[in-house]
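Archive maintenance. Older records in this collection stored only the sequence; we are now back-filling the structure field for every entry so that each record is complete. The fields below show one back-filled record exactly as it appears after the update. Entries are processed alphabetically, and YEATS domain-containing protein is next in the queue.

ARCHIVE ENTRY
Title: YEATS domain-containing protein
Organism field: Thraustotheca clavata
Length field: 223
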Amino acid sequence: MSHERQKGVVVSKPIAYGSVAMYLGRKSEETKTHRWHIYVRGIAGEDLSYMISKVVISLHNSFANPVRVLTEPPYEVSEYGWGEFETKIQIYFQDPDEKPVDIIHMLILYPPGNQIASTKKPVVSEFYDELVFNEPSELMYKKLMAGPDKQAPPNPLQEHWPVYSEIQDIQVLTDAQKFLAQEVAQTKKLLIEAETEAKELKEKIAAFEAQRKLEAKAKAAAS
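Back-filled structure field:
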């Protein structure tokens, strides 16, 4: 399949990323006060492997094996700890020529303000975002237009995840975008066919003119 860029085509796909941290209580170890999870997920529970080849999550270098490579859902790292720190999330795509996306996410363990940490209510820090593909290759374009073909495995964290009220609106926009992209692709195909026909016609006219000149020369020579 061609890696040629689809000129003038822009495709966006929604994702969510963030962290969930659960306080383990006063009896927990001093260096393991929380159980936390950092992740990338589909906003409606869809399996993102149709467009994502891997997710790399880089933790604080005090952790063993701080760079975690995740090649299939769930794109999630779970650990125990006591401190907050910045993490780096890198998203790689099924088309290796597509530039990876880098995201910085701050791991939040403690509730805001003067709220007291609770073993029953986790601290959720999640963000909605959109991956924007500007003039993707034919390979990536077809994968994006095909979309997810299955749901990600059930996740124990999902009861804590935000529910996006815009999901239906996003789906409508995604469907509209898919339709427009198909129309653009069809128009592009027709233009290519028209250009090919015009080229063939031009070549036939040139051949006809060349033949006429040869016949005229032959006639002049005979006379």
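Update note: DSSP finds two helices and eight strands in the chain. The radius of gyration is 28 Å.
Entry marked complete.
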